[in-house]
Structures are given as structure tokens and as C-alpha cells.
Design brief:
single chain; alpha/beta; Rossmann fold; five-stranded parallel β-sheet; binds adenosine-5'-diphosphate
Length: 208
């Protein structure tokens, strides 16, 4: 199964991709995670990417495509994968189609108005990557990870100004992919406005 998860920032794609990938025993490939790791390691690609990410813009297609190509060539991706965060515009969808066949696209449908707080209130553990929300899912002790006690941080692109830019980028460049994949008859739409458990059920329904 070669699967794409499509949807706006904050719709829960990453959380759901992690769960579904474990269940289906295929890798979860997140271009956002790959780019953040490149930024943290200070690689040339990471140096190129950081300014775009921190402005809520897309990293240039060739930079992301090169990373993705390398990742898809690894042996664990041969039997399938869940792609989270790629493609993000029509050009990327065309590049992806030339690399591999996609079997299904799951679109996380949710009103953008519901998402701003999710992102702005999100905090992550820099050590184990656990995700919290200061309002809806706060850590037990103020700003400390429940698992390892490390001080939580905010992703630089979760600041309100950047979140707004990410929504704009999404609407202009990524949302047109809904139509694109509908026309290719690959699209399965799920409601992404429930609890993580409810969304997980919807994902299972369209994938299993
Ligand atoms: P979200 O989907 O919540 O915005 P991601 O972690 O998927 O978060 O992406 C964070 C940032 O990484 C994006 O705003 C963008 O700058 C960059 N990025 C991730 N995937 C891509 C991609 N396929 N093409 C271009 N830029 C990307």
C-alpha cells in the first residue's frame, strides 16, 4: 500500500500516520520531520530549508524531491509507505507519480478555523518528540514532558504569524490537490474534526 495523507497543517496527519504505519507495518515518511532533522543537523539542505519553513512557505521543490527520492529508495519503503506532507503542490504530485505509483490518498477534511489554536498551543518534547497542547492536552507538570521531564518547546513555525502564512500556503498550493486526486479517483475523504481516537477509526475504515 502506497498511501498519501493530505490535509491542512494541524489536521492530525502526523499522529494518524504514525498509528496507521505501525498497524500496517510500513514506514511513516514525513517530509516535515525530514526537513526539521536536516535543519537540526545543519546539512546544506537544512540550511536552505530553514528560512522557508520559518516563514510558513514551501521549501523549494528540488530540495524536498531529492530527500524524498533518497528515502523512497531505502529497503523498508519497498512494500509501501505513508507519505505525510508530500505532495504539497501539483508539481510535487507530478514528480511523485514519476517516482512511484500511489494507491490511495486520504484527505483530512476540517475547517481551518478549528486549527489555529491547535497549532499555536502545540508544544513538543525536543527529546522524545511527544506532542502536547497547552489547552486540550497539557503536560502534568507545567511545560515539562510527562515521559522524560524535558522542557517542552514550540516549533518556530507554530508562532501565530507563521501559522497564518502556512494556512495561506496550504489554500493556494496544497488544497488544489484535492481536486487533482479526485480526478485520478484516488481520494478518500475523512472527517478530521473529532478526537484522535475517532479520526483513527475513520482512517482504519478507509485503509483496511
Ligand atoms: P504542517 O503540515 O503541520 O505544516 P510539516 O511538519 O508537514 O507541518 O511541515 C512543516 C514545514 O516544512 C512546511 O511549512 C514547509 O515549509 C516544509 N515542508 C514540509 N513538507 C514539504 C514539501 N513537501 N514541500 C515543501 N516544503 C515542505
Amino acid at each position: 500500500m502506497r498511501i498519501v495523507f493530505l490535509g491542512p497543517p494541524g489536521a492530525g496527519k502526523g499522529t494518524q500516520a504514525e498509528l496507521a504505519a505501525a498497524r500496517l507495518k510500513i514506514p511513516h515518511i514525513s517530509t516535515g520531520d525530514m526537513l526539521r532533522s536536516a535543519v537540526a543537523r545543519g546539512t546544506p539542505a537544512g540550511k536552505d530549508a530553514a528560512e522557508f519553513m520559518n516563514a510558513g512557505k514551501l521549501v523549494p521543490d528540488p530540495v524536498v524531491l531529492k530527500m524524498l527520492e533518497e528515502r523512497l529508495r531505502e529497503p523498508d519503503a519497498r512494500s509501501g509507505f505513508i507519505l505525510d506532507g508530500y505532495p504539497r503542490n501539483v508539481e510535487q504530485a507530478i514528480s511523485l507519480a514519476s517516482l512511484t505509483q500511489i494507491d490511495r490518498v486520504v484527505f483530512f477534511s476540517i475547517d481551518l478555523g478549528a486549527l489555529e489554536d491547535r497549532l499555536v498551543e502545540r508544544r513538543v518534547c525536543p527529546q522524545c518528540q511527544a506532542v502536547y497542547n497547552l489547552k486540550s492536552n497539557p503536560p502534568r507538570v507545567d511545560l515539562r514532558c510527562d515521559r522524560d521531564g524535558i522542557t517542552l518547546v514550540q516549533r518556530p513555525d507554530d508562532r501565530r504569524e507563521v501559522v497564518e502564512a502556512r494556512f495561506k500556503t496550504y489554500l493556494e498550493q496544497t488544497e488544489p490537490l484535492v481536486r487533482h486526486y479526485q480526478e485520478l479517483k484516488l481520494l478518500q475523504t475523512i472527517r478530521a474534526d473529532g478526537t484522535p481516537e475517532a479520526i483513527a477509526k475513520e482512517v482504519t475504515k478507509v485503509l483496511d
